[in-house]
Design goal:
The protein is an alpha+beta fold and 121 residues long. It has 2 helices and 8 strands. It folds into 2 domains: 1-60, Roll (2,3-Dihydroxybiphenyl 1,2-Dioxygenase, domain 1); 70-121, 2,3-Dihydroxybiphenyl 1,2-Dioxygenase, domain 1. Strand 6 and strand 7 form a beta hairpin.
Length: 121
């Protein structure tokens, strides 16, 4: 069964948001070395329940977005369309991680999907 594995917090000023979440919750937040401005959030120890996430500039999304792990993004994008949802951002590669896509449910809520594949370049 697919499960939520990641959250993303959009921010007008990501560096300000990083300072806020570090101060309020003690989260460990580091800037990602990838091609976009993206700060990775470690929100607890790996042996604790919960998920980690990220902070990014408010460009594509204005609200918190949860990402769900799936075996096949292509399959789930078809199911989403059949169920009345919309594809917001089609499947794209993230080197070393896999593939991601973003969709919207029938109520207007955005969510992401991750198909893990560390061999993606």
């Amino acid at each position: 069964m697919p499960k939520v594995v990641h959250f993303e917090i959009p921010a007008d000023d990501p560096e300000r948001a990083v300072k806020f979440y570090e101060k309020v919750f003690g989260w460990k937040i580091e800037k990602w070395a990838g091609p976009i401005d993206y700060w990775l959030v470690t929100a607890g120890e790996s042996d604790e329940p919960g998920i980690n996430g990220a902070i990014h500039e408010k460009t594509n999304f204005k609200t918190v977005v949860n990402t769900i792990a799936v075996e096949s993004i292509d399959k789930h994008l078809e199911i989403i369309k059949q169920a009345g949802g919309k594809v917001l951002i089609p499947k794209g590669a993230v080197p070393g991680l896999g593939y991601v896509a973003f969709a919207e449910d029938t109520e207007g809520n955005a969510f992401g999907m991750l198909q893990s594949d560390p061999s993606v370049k």
